[in-house]
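Quick one, tokens below. Sequence please?
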């Protein structure tokens, strides 16, 4: 994967042999003559820089074709166009906020009916599918911030039996750690705003599609509705792809080390990280993904303590989103998930003291030391002694962290085999 990210298939012809992909920052293309058209005419319909990004994504995911959109939500909206009025969508019940809003507030206006179900429960999902009427099963694994896992291969079989297409929102794992098409899905969506861009400087989204006819339908929507990604953002995404494996592996190794430290901390009641062997979905996750990723969440049992941890960290930026080189921290119930009513949040296992961390690529020793000093302040605030706190000496610099992450993964795989 790391090699393929750096050596993409070349789709543009370049007389100068530029090492970086050429940027075609143009809306229109000069045609061969009054009656003959060249390969490109108008950038909404197609642009060589976008074609380069799409070809690389298709190659990375083993897709027949990939399409790049101006955001992850634009990509998912295009997928929703596959569903006609009177038809039915089954989706997870712990989806990304923007996806929830699309399904709850846009789909009904299009005459599309949506059923939300716990997709970690295969039988419940099977029961929600209406053969002949359900056109789409929309999945996320892991979910965010609860990090729930669903079995993509098993759910794909169940959906296909009912005649539905399967789209997996793969933004959290990205093709580096998880390959939904290889697991049986029809469409894999990645928000390029996250790990592909990687530097919090673009919004974008890609669809990797299995099946030429399905790809053709989605390509028609991309052109007809005009939501394709612009050339410069495609160029930035292409640059981001080159370092994506390096960034994601580093961040995941650091996240595994932080998760282990948090789990041993006396102020932490619960850690949600699919790379921890005790996680409810760890066994399934280990069969379909190659790492735990760099997102985790935890509960302290005290909103006040959580608030102090979030506010007192110096290296973690208090913001939404993830997948950036910079570590981020937030209280989801007060930011990204504030629009969900409190009672529903509680029912969904989203307590107000939940802290979410997106681990960046900083030195893990610095991240741990920073969390440690923030936790000491939080403990003082809630009147707890810091004596039981595990030492903030991280085992985790570079190679060692990588090995620890590998061990955690192997342990999870052993659990999976035993189960
Ligand atoms: C960010 C995100 C999206 C939406 O992507 P945008 O690029 O912000 O439109 C969809 N799903 C998940 C899981 C995300 O994290």
């Amino acid at each position: 994967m790391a090699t393929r990210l750096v050596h993409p298939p070349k789709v543009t012809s370049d007389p100068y042999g530029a090492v970086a992909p050429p940027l075609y920052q143009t809306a229109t293309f000069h045609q061969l003559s009054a009656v003959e058209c060249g390969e490109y005419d108008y950038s909404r319909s197609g642009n060589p820089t976008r074609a380069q990004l799409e070809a690389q994504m298709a190659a990375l995911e083993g897709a027949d074709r990939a399409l790049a959109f101006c955001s992850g939500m634009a990509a998912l909206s295009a997928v929703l166009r596959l569903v006609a009025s009177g038809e039915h969508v089954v989706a997870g019940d712990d989806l990304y906020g923007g996806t929830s809003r699309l399904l709850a507030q846009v789909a009904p206006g299009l005459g599309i009916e949506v059923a939300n179900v716990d997709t970690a429960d295969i039988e419940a999902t099977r029961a929600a599918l209406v053969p002949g009427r359900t056109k789409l099963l929309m999945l996320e694994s892991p979910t965010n911030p609860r990090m729930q896992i669903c079995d993509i291969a098993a759910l794909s079989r169940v959906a296909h039996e009912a005649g539905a297409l399967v789209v997996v929102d793969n933004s959290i794992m990205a093709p580096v750690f998880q390959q939904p098409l290889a697991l049986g899905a029809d469409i894999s969506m990645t928000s390029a705003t996250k790990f592909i861009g990687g530097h919090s400087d673009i919004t974008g989204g890609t669809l990797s599609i299995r099946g030429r006819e399905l790809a053709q339908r989605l390509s028609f929507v991309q052109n007809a509705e005009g939501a394709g990604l612009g050339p410069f953002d495609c160029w930035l995404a292409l640059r981001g792809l080159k370092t994506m494996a390096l960034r994601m592996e580093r961040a995941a190794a650091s996240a595994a080390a932080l998760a282990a430290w948090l789990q041993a901390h006396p102020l932490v009641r619960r850690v949600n990280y699919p790379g921890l062997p005790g996680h409810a979905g760890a066994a399934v996750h280990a069969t379909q993904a190659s790492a735990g990723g760099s997102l985790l969440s935890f509960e302290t049992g005290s909103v006040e303590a959580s608030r102090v941890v979030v506010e007192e960290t110096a290296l973690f930026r208090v913001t939404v989103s993830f997948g950036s080189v910079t570590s981020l921290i937030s209280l989801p119930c007060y930011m990204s998930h504030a629009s969900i009513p409190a009672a529903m949040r509680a029912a969904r296992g989203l307590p107000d003291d939940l802290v979410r961390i997106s681990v960046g690529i900083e030195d893990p020793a610095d991240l741990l030391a920073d969390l440690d000093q923030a936790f000491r302040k939080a403990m003082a605030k809630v009147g707890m002694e810091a004596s039981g706190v595990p030492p903030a000496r991280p085992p985790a610099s570079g190679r060692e962290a990588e090995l620890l992450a590998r061990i955690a993964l192997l342990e999870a795989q052993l659990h999976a085999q035993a189960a």
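The mean pLDDT is 92. The radius of gyration is 22 Å.
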